[in-house]
Give the backbone structure.
Amino acid sequence: MIEQEIKIIINNIKKDIKRTQIKTAVQVNRNLIMLYFRLGKILYENFKYGNKFIDEISRELKIEYPNSKGYSVRNLKYMKKFYIEYKDNKLMQQLVAQVPWGHNIVLMEKINNMEIRKIYLQSIIKNNWGRGMLIHQIESKYHLRIGNSNNNFKISLPTNGSDLANYIVKDPYVFDFISLNNNYKEQELENAMINKIKDLLLELGKGFSFVGNQYKISMKDKDYFIDLLFYHLELRCYIVVELKATSFKPEFIGQLSFYVTAIDEILKKEFDNPTIGLLLCKEKDRLSVEWSLKGTNLPIGVSSYELGKHIHNDILEKLPTEEEINLHIDFIDK
């Protein structure tokens, strides 16, 4: 009993330390970003001295702070641009102070529209994206994909829940970490997702917790299997995901509705919100989906997905083998 109490005390200490470390890191980042903002202001207001002024400042700061890599001419120019772009926008100043400097540089280089940039800033803060993930999301046009699915959330979920659910579900999903032949089957797609579960969870977004695949539902005389089952920590509900290796068909809604009802009856607790169904199809006609969704009062979203590009076998056959490449390299070396 005493050992258990000591363990609880130690775990609480660890949690407190971790929370403090996170708060400290956030505050350090905020202070650094605001320093860069103030330096950018000085550079902007003294533009009359020309580019040599920035060169001189960079040289002096490097001498004074030899261990710091933040005072190169290139970085100082970013600071100037940083100040110019945000000097009249208090909301954006608050957002940019919460993300690392490298992320801010990526946004300045790749996103000109401030409203779109705000979407990415909010998503970095919410999802804790690294710089590589941010670049990936920009290249896959994340801002166009969020809230773009066909769904009936507005009429099937409470207002707060429907807005959040609509924001969480994307269209299309980009599974570029999966590469399959064009004639792949649903089981192959599912297996590839399970093998890359971490990548899958990153694409689905923060809050998705994996429960299981081929989740069995037993009736009196038959068993049914749900492709993928998740629990969403923010929505506080189960999410049933059905995969289809074909274009959308209206009958898919009936199948998914059955699975959603089954999870509500079997797993859902009093404190859980209604289960949501998510149908992922290779392609879809939005009007067909809209008409199909009118036939159910269960919360269901329908999205398409894209896989990584696959090199066809006929192309592979024309590519040189490893042995042929090595022979060519040996010939050049001689």
Q: What stands out?
A: Residues 151-313 form a domain with the Trna Endonuclease; Chain: A, domain 1 fold (CATH 3.40.1350.10). Residues 58 and 73 are 6 Å apart (CA to CA).
